[in-house]
Amino acid sequence: MKSNKKEVLKNFVIHVVLIICCIISIFPILWIFSSSINTNNSLVSTTIRLIPEKPTLMHYKSILFNGPFLTWLTNSSIVSISTTLLCLVLGTTSAYAYSRFRFMGRNLGLNVFLILNAFPNILSIVAYYKILKIFNLLDNQLGLVIICTGSQLIFTVWNLKGYFDTVPVEIEEAAKIDGATMLQMFCRIILPLSKPALAVTAMFAFMAGWNEYVLAMTFLITPEKFTLPVGLWSLQQNSSSYATNWPLFSAGSLIVAVPVAVVFLLLQKSLVSGLTLGGVKG
Predict the structure, then answer these.
(1) pLDDT of residue 71
(2) Residue 61 covered by a domain
(3) 123 plus 213 within the same structural domain
(4) pLDDT-based confidence at residue 131 (cuts at 50, 70, 90)
(5) pLDDT at 153
(6) Which residues belong to any copy of the ABC transmembrane type-1 domain (predicted)?
(7) Whole domain around residue 191: which residue ranges?
(8) Which residues contact 13 (CB under 8 A, 6 or more apart)?
(9) Rounded to 5°, angle at Cα 198 from 194 and 199
(10) pLDDT of 278
């Protein structure tokens, strides 16, 4: 009886703590949403109200149709989708090679990946700039895609390699006996069995391209080529009606977060298993 009471009390405390954490996490989002539908140009108020007295959606309409926001949205989509596809293509083939084949420099290559992962991209920004300038890729979305893909490939290769290690080799050996080629085994056996890990890889690659700010702000110069993070920053810097319009900025911030949330909801069933199984073997 006492053990049951302790268990109930323990579960109650855990649920209370989790509810408090959820409230703390959700409150900033609700605050920004409240600001985005507020007619007053302010982020703070003397009264605590999640819904303003006179809510309006005019700020969403204004930022979507009265400025270059849709152009920035298209640019971000191009960068993030291209980064995702390149990471999947290059990462899956590289990870499969590291997982299944034994060749000279294999361990060295994996260790180099780990060493490179220890340094943030900001340390290489000067080198990136000079390389892109040499190849005439400054102020070009292709240059940003290449940089984002290269920085994200380290996680991609290690995560997928760990997942491929958990796939039994006997399955491929049986397929080889039946006459399957290496490409057929990879495309028809390995990739379908690795959907959770591919979902995790796609999610992180998409976020890397979608949320990139420092590199995009450094390498993109023309406003028509800005991505959404840089575009939102420019709204507060330009001497225009956007400069101090916090409700408009809040509306844009929420719109930017929607695609990432949608991708997460679509892939959430695969995220946990993809991350855990991808880290079982190294």
Answers:
(1) 93
(2) no
(3) yes
(4) very high
(5) 92
(6) 73-267
(7) 67-278
(8) none
(9) 120
(10) 47
pLDDT digits (tens, 9 = 90+) for 182-226: 889 999 989 988 888 898 899 999 999 999 999 999 999 998 999
- The answer to whether 43 and 231 are in contact (CB under 8 A) is no
- Residue 62 belongs to some domain of the structure: no
User: By the 8 A CB rule, do 75 and 97 touch?
Assistant: no
- Considering the domain architecture, whether residues 23 and 149 belong to the same structural domain is answered as no
- 29 in a domain, yes or no? yes
Alpha helices in 37-68 (DSSP H): 58-65
How many residues comprise the chain? 282
What is the percent of the chain where pLDDT is above 70? 88
- Is residue 130 situated within a structural domain? yes
Assigned token pair, 55: 């809510």
As a whole number of angstroms, the distance between CA 207 and CA 49 comes to: 32
Q: What is the dihedral of CA 127, 82, 118, 278, to 10 degrees?
A: -160
Whether 43 and 99 share a structural domain? no
87 and 184 part of one domain: yes
Of 282, 74, 97, nearest to 186 (Cα)?
A: 97
